Amino acid sequence: MKYYIIAGEASGDLHGSNLMHGLYAKDPDAEIRFWGGDLMKAVFDANDKVTAQTGADSERYGGLVRHYKEGAVMGFWEVIRKGGRLLQNVSDCKEDILSHRPDVVILIDYPGFNFKIAEFAHKHGIKVFYYIAPKVWASREGRIRKLKQFVDKLFIVFPFEIHYFRGKGVDFIYRGNPLVDAVDNSPAVKETREDFIRRNSLEDKPVIAMLAGSRKPEISSMMPVLTEFARKMHALPQYSGYQFLIAGAPARSIEDYSPWLNPSEDYIKVLFGETQSIIRHAEAAVVNSGTASLETVLFNVPQVVGYKVNRLTYIVGKHIIKIRYISLGNLCIDRLAFKELIQDECNADEILKEVRSLIEDKDYRDKMLSDYAEIRQLLGGTGASQSVAEAMVDILSHTSSPRS
């Protein structure tokens, strides 16, 4: 069967790559064309049997159409500034879908873009699956109508979504959260601290992980705060031997971080392709809100979440966001397992205070790790991506050809 997958950011690339593993396992002759990133491309390259056997041009059958870094934006103001490019991407995607006529379009989160594609694919008789539900439980609940109208099957990944979507009358499948597999199967889990240090030419010193986000606006907002925090913490005698490692986001370069780095401050370093290892070997983590925060839970590393955006985006967001917490882990248990510092509270002094508590207050740390165990249990066991892929293939195998 022919699959067309659309992932618009780093987390979608991760989940898309795991889903592709499952699709190839269930449907060895799968032809997969996708918008995504390096992780999805690596899976495709390893499974591109059609090209390998026939010498044909992979563009005819599948492969990466466009990298998510060319379109990922966040927030109200950023969408306004880059609206023209986003509309062009939507137009290009529609044209490509019609040209290749897949059996199914699989949409991964990224609702601003993907809802437009869902409507288009539906109207052209192509089956639509939505994987990683758009966060309608947080804002823009009116999109539920579009889910019912244009999506053939919704695949959810959080336990708290079960009651929500059931109450809204949306048909869904829940097979657990794919991030559990992504973390448990990560090379970072098996790697020793000594290997991590040696491979990255680091000193054998305690690590504080700092994750500024994957999108450029997130990085620009968080980097000044994170580097100021690192300087203040390093200036304290008991922490002068610590190193502060910034996880360079996929599809970003050192130029995205260098305006806030000082060569003389060698205790602050940016490492690319090492996000999970940095988290895994850290004493504590400062994490921009998003998937990385849930990864930090699964790696069992104490954390504080920071969230800071453009002022206009924040003002608009305050009026449309209707959830109590911004972090997925906290939403899972409906209470604060770890602190969230939002906008003005997201400053170097508040982060320093919290990180010190994570390291120095054993009872506080242990309570957080106990909450982590509860979150992990709620997310379900292993095999989520494989199970979802099997469900998708089964649905396609037992339904008629695409609508005409």
Automatic annotation (TrEMBL):
GO terms for biological process: lipid A biosynthetic process. InterPro entries: Glyco_trans_19. It catalyses: a lipid X + a UDP-2-N,3-O-bis[(3R)-3-hydroxyacyl]-alpha-D-glucosamine = a lipid A disaccharide + UDP + H(+). The keyword Acetylation does not apply. Its EC number is 2.4.1.182. Keywords: Glycosyltransferase, Lipid A biosynthesis, Lipid biosynthesis, Lipid metabolism, Transferase. This is Lipid-A-disaccharide synthase.
